[in-house]
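Q: Hi! First time doing this. I have a protein sequence and I read that you can turn it into a structure. Is that right? Here it is:
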Amino acid sequence: MTVNEYNEAVNLYSDRLFRFVLKSIRDTFAAEDIVQDSYEKLWKNVENVDGAKVKSYLFTTAYHTMIDRIRKEKRSAYSEELNLPEESHENNYSDLGEILKEAVNRLPEIQRMVLLLRDYEGYSYNEIGEIANLNESQVKVYIYRARVFLKNYIGKMEAVV
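A: Yes, that's right. Below is the predicted 3D structure, encoded as structure tokens:
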């Protein structure tokens, strides 16, 4: 991969990479850091990455960096042993988008990731498989399960009716 291809990868994929990470972790600053780390890892490995596969490399790297960060935060939260009061909120929703956002947040991490890549970012099953290290059948199963969960969750919401 050349320097020009690297710069082109920044121009082409940085916004999509940021949106993907932001939808998963919902923290702007952390998403920016993860995207920056992904491009830093690409730069350090620029000689070994094929220019045609840079998109897959970036999304895979960002996904793994995000998972590592989430695991690290969970470990630090457990070690602090804080007794935080639970947030309470009413389940009276007036916005279907808000209900859908809450439902997506309740999905398991892998289902949320593949669903966001497919339905929000428009990636093909094959591309999602490359990013998440899954085969195409696994991707389809996770997306199906996520959609069934969303349908059941939204169907059970009394406020939507």
